[in-house]
Structures are given as structure tokens and as C-alpha cells.
Amino acid sequence: MHPEHIKQLILAGMACDFLELDGDGQHFQAIVVSSEFIGKSRVQRQQRVYETLREKLATGELHALSFKTLTPEEWSAQRG
User: Is pTM, for the whole model, over 0.85?
Assistant: First the structure.
């Protein structure tokens, strides 16, 4: 699976202020920044991203994804 395809699935499923996704076709890493994460726990944030990829995960097309989930404020603070 191509990283751009995964990126489009996430963008189609939720509002993102910033999304960066990289991978080698097997393993993928992402940074997802969204206002939807405000007031949500880390687990709730991850569940929200996984929700956008549910079908691909269920069919086994996507099986290795790690990501950071940040609010816009957290992203801004992290970038200095």
C-alpha cells in the first residue's frame, strides 16, 4: 500500500490541520494533528485515526502503522 493512499483515507475520514505520513509499503509512520483531539485521551485519539482505516486494517491491506496524535496547540508547542 502506498503512503499517499493511506494519507488520503485519513484525510477523507477526519479533519486534519497537518498530516505527515511516510513508509516503505509495509511499515508506516504518521504525525496527525487535528482539532478533533482536543480533550481526548491518547487512546481516544488513536481510535479516531484507526477508525478512518478500519476497512484496510480488517482486510490486512494495512497492518503496521505507528503515529503521533497531537492537537494544533501541542503541535505548535512541539515545533518551538
Answer: yes
